[in-house]
Amino acid sequence: MFRRIKNRILRYLVIAIYFVIVLVCAIQLNFLWLFGYSPTKKDIIMPSVNISTELYTADSVLIGRYFDEDRNPIPFDSIPKTVINALIATEDVRFYSHNGVDFLGLGSGIVSTLKGDKRGASTITQQLAKNLYRTRYNKAGGLLTRLPVAGLVVTKFKEWMTAYKLEQRYTKNQILEMYLNTVSFSNNAYGIETAAKRYFSKGANQLNQNEAAVLIGMLKGTTLYNPIRNPEKSFDRKNTVLSQMHKGGFLKKEEYDALVKEKIILNTNNQDVNAGGDSYLRTAVAKWLEKWSEENNYDIYTDGLKIYTTINSKLQKHAEEAVAKQMAELQQRLNNTWDGQEPWRDLSGKVIPNFLENLAKKTPYYEFLSKKYANTPDSINFFLNKKKKMEVYNWKDKGKIEKEMSTMDSLKYYAMMLNAGMMSMDPYSGEIKAWVGGIDHQYFKYDHVMQAKRQAGSTFKPFVYLAALESGMSPCDKITDKPVTIKIDKGDSVEVWEPKNADWNFSYREMTLRHAMARSINSVTVQLTDMVTPAKVVDAAQRCGITSKLNPVASVGLGPNDVSVFEMVNGYSTMMNHGERVTPVLVSKIEDHDGNVIATFQAERKQVVDKQDAWLMTYMLRGGMEEPRGTSQGLWEWDLFDKENEIGGKTGTSSEYVDGWYMGVTKDLVTGIWVGCDERSIHFKNSHTGEGSRTALPIFGVFLESVYKDKQLGYTQGKFPESTVEITKSYKCETPRYSDPEPEQSDSTNIDEQTDEGLIGPEEESTEGATEHNNNGGSVSENIGALEQSSST
């Protein structure tokens, strides 16, 4: 075919053109999978860029980010001229003169390389092609790329082709904008805006000439010229950039001479950047949006969304500070309780054998040692007990401290650590206003609001009284506080259960339902459960919002079932919201990167409790403050009762003071708080130190006092809402104040408990059961996995 062309030069030229056309087609089609993936026309029109998603509170405070690549693109007119000039002078001085490939620069680069001065010849457009479409990575590689020389030729040719396509599709300024928004600046900072905030705590449009030179200088080697890791090399590279700018006519001699002497001054304390770290809230929102993301084909880690939560930033701060203040004191109290003793005990008070050893076996470090020193337990024990420097969480220093500890020491240290969960919610809208998943997310990943489920203790009793009201009773109906005998038919036998009050005493007095609930009398709760049936109690709780499995047994009202703080807040909110259950809402709306609202979220509503009974339950909950010896009266310690303010609440403590609870209700908020160790076998010894009124209730008191004092929040003191329906049941029944002293009433359910398998007394619960019971609570071995992994190195 080519022989018809008589002129040899012309023939060779036509052959070369033909060869190029065939090569281009083959590369574009990835013929026989030889060349790998090439960007399509659609890719060029809509380049794929991962953009970080930002997480905001309801009052527009940035509290977190989600990203695979932390990137916040900005328009060209927000990029300062100093950055543009530094980039062009250093990376592609002929940028405005070529069409994607600078053949003149390529030839000059080859000559320089042959002379021993290695110099790259890739244009900014080629580098953009490589960054956007990863032409040298992943699926871009075909079979030919496995051959050293052929692979280099193919990938380079594809970069030329892609660069040419980009130049045809975009203006020079658009190419510069895309390049500076996609390039990596190390430390997981992608794009000039994120880099400016990461290294200098300012926006890109605020960068001075020296700072711009530092960042552009990093592009030659983001690790080698990182100003944090290698400040001296970064300084030298910065001056090289300034030199190129001077040569390119972008800097006058006097400017250059002054700038090369300036030191690099970093500022890495930017709060917006630090908000990108993980937190309980950030994790909770990600979990919350899993289903929405899947159904709507969004990826919160790459799509550059703006997620607005229902959280109030100030309320959140008050909640976090209240938890931190009280938990530091409680931790010291627990440490003093077990000073010099082993705290892991079964229900009979005996030390659990091999407790720490069993915890150690669950750690990644133990797994590592077991593989390395198989069949040599002495070596494993040696390294488990070998002292080394560790960073551990410490309340006193409000963060990490460095200590000489062994793995076994660290397990003991963390097993003794108290944790907490707290959630506050608007009961009418369903909006969650504060969420504190634990004491410190860096060290304790397990969320104690949603994930952890613990025995509710006496905080579950209101559902018994609700079932009683629904059966026709009123708050003024009376029941005698007396011993109770419950017979349970087991088919081939009958078991007898005789629950006791927390103080093991009975007053033998008649008391109204309101007074009994306020005093948290176990005997009355059990009698009511027997009267209305356990199944009715379970039904009432589930209708209100408890979704965990509840065993309909005689002891159900004493709170032996494991539930979450999230569920309990929802359940109490139903009572406060006139019997209408609202599904709690954590996210209010989501915007795309351009600011368009793509999703809004509102609570689902359902009337599940009669309005009269619901209002009477809020009146009953106030009894904890208003009835004689009510278990909430510790709240008088705080300044909470101006303007006839009304507060309802219920304390709760599980057996052996393992779990301390407080559920607090005001006219505006329902707040739930849990306190305890993740390892259930470690707990306080007595009611004076460990019941909910002395662990969880003070957190509520501190929190609510700070909320009322913060006038900008707008939460005021006042009375509960009036009933929206006529109240036909009697409820205004004054409780006589007896002159004879009674033992102080505890809220603990520290008694034999009944499960679906029978009755369990303290002497019957085994060590194995105590350890196994921890499955819903975030074990120590899980929480310090990162620490043990670092130990293995």
From TrEMBL:
Region span, Disordered: 731-793
Recorded metabolic or biological pathway in which this protein acts: Cell wall biogenesis; peptidoglycan biosynthesis
InterPro entries (alphabetical): Beta-lactam/transpept-like, Glyco_trans_51, Glycosyltr_51/Transpeptidase, Lysozyme-like_dom_sf, PBP_transglycosylase, PCN-bd_Tpept
Localization: Cell membrane
Species annotation: Sphingobacterium ginsenosidimutans
Pfam families from the UniProt entry: Transgly (PF00912), Transpeptidase (PF00905)
Biased composition regions of type Polar residues, renumbered to the chain: 768-793
Family assignment from sequence similarity: In the C-terminal section; belongs to the transpeptidase family. In the N-terminal section; belongs to the glycosyltransferase 51 family.
PANTHER family in alphabetical order: BINDING PROTEIN TRANSPEPTIDASE, PUTATIVE-RELATED, PENICILLIN-BINDING PROTEIN 1B
Residue ranges constituting the Penicillin-binding protein transpeptidase domain according to the UniProt record: 423-664
Protein name: Transglycosylase domain-containing protein
Compositional bias per record (Basic and acidic residues), positions renumbered to this chain: 731-740
Keyword terms of this UniProt record: Carboxypeptidase, Cell membrane, Cell shape, Cell wall biogenesis/degradation, Glycosyltransferase, Hydrolase, Membrane, Multifunctional enzyme, Peptidoglycan synthesis, Protease, Transferase, Transmembrane, Transmembrane helix
Domain of life: Bacteria
Reactions catalysed, as given in the entry: [GlcNAc-(1->4)-Mur2Ac(oyl-L-Ala-gamma-D-Glu-L-Lys-D-Ala-D-Ala)](n)-di-trans,octa-cis-undecaprenyl diphosphate + beta-D-GlcNAc-(1->4)-Mur2Ac(oyl-L-Ala-gamma-D-Glu-L-Lys-D-Ala-D-Ala)-di-trans,octa-cis-undecaprenyl diphosphate = [GlcNAc-(1->4)-Mur2Ac(oyl-L-Ala-gamma-D-Glu-L-Lys-D-Ala-D-Ala)](n+1)-di-trans,octa-cis-undecaprenyl diphosphate + di-trans,octa-cis-undecaprenyl diphosphate + H(+); Preferential cleavage: (Ac)2-L-Lys-D-Ala-|-D-Ala. Also transpeptidation of peptidyl-alanyl moieties that are N-acyl substituents of D-alanine
